[in-house]
Amino acid sequence: MSCSSNVIHLQLPASGLAQRAPVHLLPCEIEHNGPAQITEYFSATVKDHKHEQTVSFRGRGLKGKEISCPQHYTGLVLKEVNKPGSDEEDRTVRVSFAFDKLTYWNLETPPSSDDTIVMAMDWPELAEAIQGPVN
């Protein structure tokens, strides 16, 4: 059995600071790779009520909630610079944006603590508790 180790190279912005942008996690798959005129075609008119946000996207009701990244963490939006020709080639990604919070959306289901993204945001604290020193 052979073991291949691929390297992912991360390109940081020239200034060292990534531009901040609002991030929305939508419950859909968009079959498009490449730039999109998001500000022209996606502007969420959000209605807040009872700690829940609602919006309509292409005629479907979405319910969402804004959540923060875990303490001492920053989210990054990455873009692949050059797609490798095979799985064994190294990859290079560039930081497009950074974020400290994001809004996630469910299709007609109210946000809850059982949502996958909410549980993922709890993982660093849980991992620290498991791996940290025992007193």
List the helices and strands and how they pair.
Layout: E1 8-11, E2 24-25, H1 38-41, E3 47-49, E4 52-57, E5 60-68, E6 75-82, E7 91-99, E8 101-107, H2 116-131
Parallel strand pairs: 1-7, 2-8
Antiparallel strand pairs: 3-4, 4-5, 5-8, 6-7
How would you describe what is shown here?
- One of its GO terms (biological process) is RNA catabolic process.
- InterPro entries: RNase_H2_subunit_C, RNase_H2_suC.
- It holds the Pfam family RNase_H2_suC.
- By secondary structure, this protein is of the alpha/beta class.
- The chain has a single domain (8-131), classed as Lipocalin.
- The chain has 2 helices and 8 strands.
- A 5-stranded mixed sheet has the order 2-8-5-4-3.
- A hairpin with a 2-residue loop joins strand 3 (47-49) and strand 4 (52-57).
- The termini are far apart.
- The mean pLDDT is 83.
Task: Supply the key terms.
single chain, 135 residues, alpha/beta, Lipocalin, five-stranded mixed sheet, three-stranded mixed sheet, 2 helices, globular
- Per DSSP E runs of 2 or more residues, the count of β-strands stands at 8
Q: Would you tell me the structural class of the helices and strands?
A: alpha/beta
CATH class: Mainly Beta
Name the strands of the widest sheet in spatial order.
2-8-5-4-3
Domain count: the total is 1
Might you state the CATH topology name? Answer: Lipocalin
Give the overall pLDDT as a whole number. 83
Gross morphology is: globular
Stretches where pLDDT is under 50 for at least 5 consecutive residues are: none
Q: Helicity, in percent?
A: 10-25%
| CATH architect. name | Beta Barrel
Instruction: Determine the N-to-C terminus distance.
Output: 41 Å
* Most strands sheet: 5 strands, mixed
Strand proportion:
35-45%
Radius of gyration: 18 Å
Total of helices = 2
Question: Which sequence of SSEs, written as H and E, runs from N to C?
Answer: EEHEEEEEEH
